[in-house]
Design goal:
The protein is α+β, with helices and mostly antiparallel strands. Helices cover about 15% and strands about 30% of the residues. The chain contains seven helices and 18 strands. The strands form three sheets. Strands 1, 2, 3, 4, 5, 6, 7, 8, 10, 11, 13 and 16 form a twelve-stranded mixed β-sheet that branches.
Length: about 290
C-alpha cells in the first residue's frame, strides 16, 4: 500500500495511492473522523496494511501536488553513514573520511533536522555562499510505527510502519572541514523525500535495488543486500538507549557511486537533476537551484 501527502487546491491531505500511481483515496474517507497529517496517521494506525481499506473508484491523482510524505516529525531523522560495503571503500579512499576504519565495526549514526525535508519534486538549493562541493546520496528510509526501547533484532521488523526514498544531500566541504557530519548534512532542502511511504509488507528491505541518476547518467546502482548493518541491527542499536517513537525515520545509508567517489569528483551544480528510484517504492526527482 502507498500512502502519500498531497496538496489539492492549496490544502494538504493524506491519501492512499493506487499501484498505478493514478488514483487516490482520502484517508478522511477511510478513517472516520481523521483530520491529521501523516505523523498523526502513523500514531493512529500501527498496522496500516490491515487497518486501511479504501473503497470505491477513488479520485484522479493528476493535478495534485505530491509533497514529502512526512513533512512533520517530532524530532531529527536518524541517519547511518558508511553502511554499504562498496561505499565504505570509496568513502575511505576519497579524502573526506576522517575515521581510521574502512568498514565500521558498529553503525555510524548521526542526525539531520526535519527542517531539511522537501518534497519528491521540489528544488534543492545549491547554497553557493556556503558550499562548493554538494553531493547526492540515494537511500532507503525506514519509518517506525510501533515505538519502543531496547528492541531486539528478532523483533525489529514488527516496529516498521513502512519505507520511503530519501536523498541525503551533503556538503562535502563542510563535512570535511568540521570533522563531524551535522552541518554538512543539514542545510535547508538537503532531504528530498517521497514520493510516498509504502507499507512494510510492500518490499523486501534486505533485497531491494537502489538507483540514482544525475542528468540521466546512472551513478548509483546497488542492492540493499550490500548493507553492512541490516535494518534490524540499526533498530536495535538506536533503540538500545533511545526510545524510538511512531514516525521516527531511520535513513539506512547510501551505496557506492556518490560524487566524491569519482576522480575527479562529480559534485552537483545549479541546473543538475537528481533522480532516485528504489524498487517497489517509487522515484523522486529534484532539480538543483
Amino acid at each position: 500500500m502507498r500512502i502519500a501527502t498531497i496538496e489539492v487546491q492549496g490544502a494538504s491531505r493524506v491519501v492512499i495511492v493506487d499501484e498505478a500511481g493514478e488514483r487516490y483515496w482520502d484517508i478522511a474517507d477511510v478513517v472516520p473522523g481523521f483530520a491529521g497529517d501523516m505523523l498523526d496517521l502513523i500514531k493512529a494506525t500501527p498496522h496500516p496494511a490491515q487497518q486501511l481499506k479504501p473503497a470505491g473508484p477513488g479520485q484522479p491523482l493528476a493535478g495534485a501536488r505530491l509533497k514529502a510524505p512526512l513533512n512533520r516529525l517530532d524530532r531529527n531523522l536518524f541517519l547511518v553513514g558508511k553502511n554499504y560495503h562498496e561505499h565504505a571503500k570509496e568513502f575511505s579512499g576519497s579524502g573526506f573520511d576522517s575515521s581510521a576504519q574502512v568498514v565500521p565495526s558498529a553503525p555510524n549514526v548521526f542526525t539531520k533536522p526535519a527542517s531539511t525535508i522537501v518534497g519528491p519534486h521540489d528544488a534543492i538549493e545549491s547554497h553557493p555562499a556556503v558550499t562548493q562541493q554538494m553531493d547526492y546520496e540515494a537511500e532507503l528510509a525506514v519509518v517506525i510505527g510501533k515505538g519502543g526501547r531496547g528492541i531486539r533484532k528478532e523483533d525489529a521488523y514488527a516496529h516498521v510502519w513502512g519505507y520511503t526514498v530519501v536523498n541525503d544531500v551533503t556538503a562535502r566541504d563542510l563535512q570535511k572541514q568540521h570533522g563531524q557530519w551535522f552541518l554538512g548534512k543539514s542545510l535547508d532542502t538537503f532531504c528530498p523525500m517521497g514520493p510516498w511511504i509504502v507499507t512494510a509488507d510492500a518490499i523486501d528491505p534486505a533485497n531491494t535495488r537502489v538507483q540514482c541518476w544525475v542528468n540521466e547518467e546512472l551513478r548509483q546502482d546497488a542492492n540493499t543486500a550490500d548493507l553492512i548493518f541490516d535494518i534490524p541491527t540499526l533498530i536495535a542499536t538506536i533503540s538500545a538507549g533511545i526510545e524510538l517513537k511512531p514516525g521516527d525515520v531511520i535513513v539506512t545509508g547510501t551505496p557506492v557511486g556518490v560524487g566524491i567517489g569519482f576522480k575527479p569528483p562529480k559534485f552537483l551544480k545549479a541546473g543538475d537533476v537528481v533522480r532516485i528510484a528504489i524498487e517497489n517504492i517509487g522515484t523522486i526527482e529534484n532539480r538543483v537551484r
